[in-house]
């Protein structure tokens, strides 16, 4: 059993890299990909702990992109070689655009009468400060009863405090991943077009022509029907299936590493073998 979608406290998870590796060993994973948002810090910090534990650690990252008017998250995997310095520089640019969104989000929340500062949110965020860190401060200050309530009231798309961040066109992101020697995979397709399967089919066809070579078939949000359909899309467009829990620790307490939402996930080792073939 493997898990190719997880987050550490270097982005919007709550487990340190060492804690995440320990959890992977505890639940019996043979391989783990760390796919923090816009940073490789979690992966890099986890490397010595994974080596000591005898756990195969896969380098990954999750990127926010735009396709038409839709927001699409892209997972980039580097199972064969480390990403290039040029790619890392581009990721640093993305991280700065996230900081710009955070500054604008603070201004928006303050305009709504929320007494909050960027400095207190950044104390929660380490390398990367994201919306879950805002949510934790909103709960601590009594503006929301829990993390979900903070998102519902202020932070989710459509909520009164929501601020759009800059997202790069997906074609550019795919091209940069490929040029850096990686594999681009659509993350949690159920969130891209919900269950509008004709729309998603068109999207996946277009992205495969751009150079996307994988799709996340297995995910904690996916029903068995979803898994079957996304698997059929992988076959139709010659894409490798990927999969993972999207583990965030305490920020998504119902999601368990390796086994997903109430045990609905089991990603076979063959999925990683398929990814490796794409970069050989």
Described by strand count, sense and barrel closure, the largest sheet is: 8 strands, mixed
Euclidean distance between termini CA atoms: 22 Å
Strand content: 15-25%
For the secondary structure, the number of strands is 10
Query: Uncertain segments of ≥5 residues (pLDDT<50)?
Result: none
Oligomeric state, counting identical vs distinct chains: single chain
Rounded mean pLDDT is 93
Q: Gyration radius, to the nearest Å?
A: 18 Å
- Using the coordinates shown, work out and report the CATH topology of the domain at 2-82 and 181-278: TIM Barrel
Class derived from helix and strand content:
alpha/beta
Structure in words:
The chain is an alpha/beta fold and 280 residues long. It has a domain at 2-82 and 181-278: Metal-dependent hydrolases (TIM Barrel). The chain is 46% helix and 17% strand. It contains 11 helices and 10 strands. It has helices at residues 17-26, 41-53, 85-111, 118-125, 131-140, 147-155, 170-179, 190-193, 197-210, 224-237, 270-278; strands at 2-3, 31-34, 56-67, 70-78, 168-169, 183-186, 214-219, 240-244, 255-256, 260-261. Strands 1, 2, 3, 4, 5, 6, 7 and 8 form an 8-stranded mixed beta sheet that branches. A hairpin with a 2-residue loop joins strand 3 and strand 4. The chain is globular, with a radius of gyration of 18 Å.
